[in-house]
Amino acid sequence: MSDSNTSDGKTAGASNDLTGKIALITGGSRGIGKAIAFELGQRGATIIINYLKNHSAAQTAVRELEEAGISATRIKAHIGDETAIESLVSRIDEQFGRLDILVNNAASGVMRPAVELSAKHWDWTMDINARGPWMLSVAASRLMPEGSRIINLSSPGSTRVLPAYFAVGVSKAAIEAVTRYLAVELGPKGIAVNTVSAGFVMTDALEAFPDEIGVKDIASRPTPAGRVITPADVSKVVAMMCGTDAEMIRGQVIMVDGGETLRHQ
């Protein structure tokens, strides 16, 4: 008869239990961020949703989380602003005293080719997508006990050239590099840092792509896995990376695309 316990004495499935953990999800009121909030919450974590402008969406997300029996709150903060980041971390410290999981999901960007992009567009995109996650991770690490997790979100545009994706693609390549450096620098504190890269998922974020690129068509067609990618697919991998089974995965980019990027386009 097989033993239901693992070799180190922990019960099978304990890796997925996030009970008692405090998790911050930036951009957690909609799309993939909201799915991550629900997945971590359903596994027992207390959820902090960070948002910038859409109060209504944040209120709705917190209400729906609470209706599902998940402890949740929301904190407004501009991740591209250093002062706002420090204020956000201070509020978390005052309210919870620590942070166990940080998911850097918030993203923005100007969808234009390099020749049509201004320095202002570049700065806005990099500040939110790369500079912000770096600074928030460093600030949050002060509240993080051993065993904590930082998960950054990326996209295939970090390594593949997509039309009108210049600034966003470069920012995603940057956050993957940030992941590698932080994984080494924060490793001695017992903090694991990784990236989850999501393929084209049908969310409101795709509205930013020009119609002629056909991104929505890609997102709506079956992947080699036989179906489209959903926010839940991404959220489950993020949750998996927050569990104890992923302890020795550090500084890696985990692709969730159903095999789509393996195709020759």
Q: What would you report as the Rg, rounded to the nearest angstrom?
A: 18 Å
- Helix/strand-derived category reads alpha/beta
CATH class: Alpha Beta
CATH superfamily: NAD(P)-binding Rossmann-like Domain
Strand content: 5-15%
Can you count the beta strands? 7
Give the helix proportion (percent range).
25-40%
Number of helices: 7
Determine the CATH topology.
Rossmann fold
Helices and strands, in order, run as: EHEHEHEHEHEHHE
The biggest beta sheet reads: 7 strands, parallel
Q: In order across it, which strands form the biggest sheet?
A: 3-2-1-4-5-6-7
- Uncertain segments: 1-12
Distance between the termini: 49 Å
Judging from the principal axes of the Cα atoms, what is the shape? globular
What number of domains?
1
Per CATH, the architecture is 3-Layer(aba) Sandwich
Mean pLDDT: 89
Give structural notes:
- By secondary structure, the chain is of the alpha/beta class.
- It has a single domain, classed as NAD(P)-binding Rossmann-like Domain (Rossmann fold), CATH 3.40.50.720.
- 38% of the residues lie in helices and 14% in strands.
- It has 7 helices and 7 strands; from the N terminus they run βαβαβαβαβαβααβ.
- It has a 7-stranded parallel β-sheet, sandwiched between helices.
- α1 (31-42) crosses α7.
- The radius of gyration is 18 Å and the shape is globular.
